[in-house]
Amino acid sequence: MKEPQMEPNTNDIEERVRQRAFEIWKQRGCPEGYETEFWYQAERELKGEGSPSDISKGVSANAASAKSGSGSDGPG
Question: How far apart are alpha carbons 8 and 49 in whole angstroms?
Answer without folding.
Answer: 18
